[in-house]
Amino acid sequence: MNSKIKVLIVDDHPFFRQGVSFFLNDTKGIELVGEVSSCEEALDIVTSVEVDVMLMDLQMTGMDGIATTRALLEKNPSLRILILTSFGGGEKIQQALRTDAAGYCLKDAPLQELLTVIKAVAETLFIGEKTVKTHVANALHKLGVKIRTQAAFLANKEKLFQEENA
Predict the structure, then answer these.
(1) Is 132 exposed, middle or buried (0-12, 13-18, 19+ CB in 10 A)?
(2) DSSP character at residue 165
(3) Which domains does the chain show, CATH number per domain?
(4) pLDDT band at residue 34, thresholds of 50, 70 and 90?
(5) Which residues contact 104 (CB under 8 A, 6 or more apart)?
(6) What is the pTM of this model?
């Protein structure tokens, strides 16, 4: 990966936003293109600033991270959105991932873990469709199934995606 990953932070807590900004500004391979405090600002800026990965707070005043993720991906389907949350599981995370968010990271995770997640999502930015199809085919083979639907049924049967009780 030769180019820098362009990151935008969307969080309504200035202290958190500034802390992550400070960390990312000194990180090789990352270019912080901005930080905004609301979902509405994120919707405005995404048309004027090139962003690869957006760090999106799940719960904000006004429009929440789930609705914003949907709206952003309608404007720019290639955008990778990482949900930032204080909650480790449950329906909100599942809703966020159903919007095609690229993943999530807990706000109390070490900063190095956030960096790892950003880089993992950005790596998906630079792979082609053929590579993705190869990875899917390999995963299906290892699971002993032929199609993705069978893999989903297997995951459901093995309760790999059960919801945590709060």
Answers:
(1) exposed
(2) P
(3) 5-126 (3.40.50.2300), 128-160 (no CATH)
(4) very high
(5) 58, 82, 83, 84, 85, 93, 96, 97
(6) 0.70
Amino acid at 90: G
pLDDT at 1: 44
Say which residue the tokens 């390999």 belong to.
138
Strands 103-106 and 53-57: unpaired
Q: How far is CA 11 from CA 66, 152, 159, in A?
A: 13, 33, 33
Q: Quick check: 138 and 129 in contact, CB under 8 A?
A: no
Q: Which helix (H) or strand (E) holds 113?
A: helix 111-125
Q: What is the identity of the amino acid at 63?
A: M
- d(C-alpha 126, C-alpha 16), whole Å: 29
Strands 103-106 and 80-85: parallel
pLDDT digits (tens, 9 = 90+) for 117-163: 898 887 655 555 666 677 778 788 888 888 888 888 887 777 766 55
Structure-token match 């919707």, residue found: 43
CA distance 71 to 61: 16
User: Quick one: tokens of 26?
Assistant: 């000194």
Separation of alpha carbons 80 and 127, rounded Å: 13
**Backbone dihedral region for residue 144 (phi beyond 0: left; psi -120 to 50: alpha; all else: beta):** left
